[in-house]
Predict the structure.
Amino acid sequence: MTRRGLVLVAPAALAIAGLAATARADGPTLLIEEPAPGRYVSGPVTLRARVEPDNVSLLRLTFAADGQPVCAREAPPWECAWDAGTDVAAHSIRAVAVLADGSRLVDTVRTEAAGFAPFVDVPVVQVAATVTDGGGKLVKGLGRQAFRVFEDDREQEITHFIGADSERELVVAVDMSGSMGPSMATCREAVRRFLGTLRPVDHATLLAFNDTVFTVARRDATPEARERAVSRLRSWGSTAFYDAVLRGLDLLERHRGRRALVLFTDGEDMVSHATADDVQRRIEVSAAPVYVVAQGKGMREPALKKVLDRVSAVSGGRTFYTNRVEELDGVFTEIGEDLASQYLLAYAPADAASDGGWRTIRVEVTGAGKGKHTVRARQGYRAVARGR
């Protein structure tokens, strides 16, 4: 059975996050980037480190977990795959870098032991909703009183409401596999413009994926740092699309409020640890809409297209199919406008049984002016309690 990795922040450990790096005050430093100190990990996890400044010459970088060697690398990227096991246990991760002059840099981090399952926290259900009028134009400025929410056709009381002007938590994942070469320049520009639409209150984590999934700009990065990260994207390797979906949802799981996952890819998944079924199960318990921008022959394959359409529809997001790179800018602009018009509703379901059953969700808009309005929202959720 294929397992998927998860990485979550342990809040109590954040205060010591800056204490793990071992460095010489007057020389280069080594820092383990993934996993960060105090996180929970299980399943396949990417160990990643960096040396600052980045022009330091390395002979070799090795990783060890709980005293056992994991891998050795003699060229970047300075990372490797490691299986943390099925249980969320405490682990000690150690990285050793050997410099060209024979000196060594060492960094160690410790992850936390905790129980976690990425399931809906019944009895609170969050629903992101986007409203369009009869002409397909996005409708903004609605209040709580304009919405009605039904679960299994039974109306629910809306307990929390966040309007379209509130902050957003986004994860943007960009395919940088080898087949992206012809469209990489256009993709970089489109992603750069999309990130440029974010407001100061918004947060965006930028991921890139090929054989594995990389964090290239963290959520607290400055706009300038994000732009530099986008400009460094280069195409190589295969496509781990399913792993990117799960990694993005893991990151969003740490935050509340309005959130969404935006993915760009041009090829069929070839190397993921996760499967389409893993993605489907995760979407069914996630409150984050998923937007997919699909290009290329792989995304026109009926079986894969069915997966993408199902993922976006169930989550309340959208899938865009285009074979013309010049259309990417318009697609990203449309996604940005969609996210800017998103409302967030929450309710405590009348039927709070955690029986693993599928609960349908329907959102209606009333009193929003003349004409028919359409609401796009998650279609339902899998009612599985934490710890199951």
About this structure: Residues 6-110 form a domain with the Immunoglobulin-like fold (CATH 2.60.40.10). The longest strand covers residues 44-52. Helices lie at 184-196, 223-231, 241-252, 276-283, 302-315, 328-340. The chain has three domains: 6-110, 125-164+343-382, 168-340.
